[in-house]
Amino acid sequence: MRTLRLHPAVLAASLLCLAAAPHPATTTSPDHGLRELIAGNKRYVAVKSIRPHQTPARRSSLVQGQHPIAIVLSCADSRVPPEIIFDQGLGDLFVIRVAGNIADDANLASIEYAVAHLGQHLVVVLGHERCGAVEAVVKGEEKAGHLPALITAIAPAVEASRGQSGDRVDNAVRANIRRVVEDVRTSEPIIAAQVKAGRIRVVGARYDLDTGVVEFIH
């Protein structure tokens, strides 16, 4: 279980916002958000993207606020831009990107913000085929600087997938997605409580670099 460490004053303010702040009337249900993502990815794969919500009028409509349909915790890989592969536009997705799509404290805090202040109900953890961060851990590569922080976060998933049949990297990618989904679901005190109450749905997804297909892992 992942616990986000917050200063008591910040924690109190976050909980107050979550309990009392009115959520936007346009907030979508997790099922609706998921359907929109699935439909958008199908358009993208079929080369029928409509590229919605990218006009000056849409930009102007978002000046006073945002009502995205989903939170996406995605790998930072340049080949996996969520707005493009889900065929969405301005204000549609609340995207958090980091190599290896890990759930560290900053990323969990970002998810909490979207939950508390934007009334979000769907979180998608998006990994992808041939993830370089996961592959580096599988190969045991030593890294300098701040890279060991990524290795430490991803290593448990690599270890959990050890010995499985099939491609080692892809097995680890899938294990990492599932592990991060669980990290998000059990993040206390805010997200775990919302998940338990049935207000938030957290799902995993894997993007295929070859086909463009997003496979949802429930």
Structure description:
- Helices cover 45% and strands 13% of the residues.
- The protein has 9 helices and 5 strands, in the order αααβαβαβααααββ.
- The protein starts with 7 loop residues before the first helix and ends with a strand.
- Mean pLDDT is 89; it is low at 6-26.
Number of domains: 1
- Percent range for helical residues? 40-55%
Beta-strand share of residues: 5-15%
| Alpha-beta content class | alpha/beta
Gap between N and C termini, in Å? 19 Å
How are the SSEs ordered, and which strands pair?
Blueprint: H1 8-20, H2 30-45, H3 56-61, E1 70-74, H4 82-85, E2 93-97, H5 105-118, E3 122-128, H6 132-138, H7 147-160, H8 168-185, H9 190-196, E4 201-207, E5 214-217
Parallel strand pairs: 1-2, 1-3, 3-4
Antiparallel strand pairs: 4-5
Helix pairs in contact: 1-5, 6-7, 7-8
Core attributes:
alpha/beta; 218 residues; Beta-carbonic Anhydrase, Chain A
Write a concise synopsis of the structure shown:
It contains nine helices and five strands. By secondary structure, the protein is of the alpha/beta class.
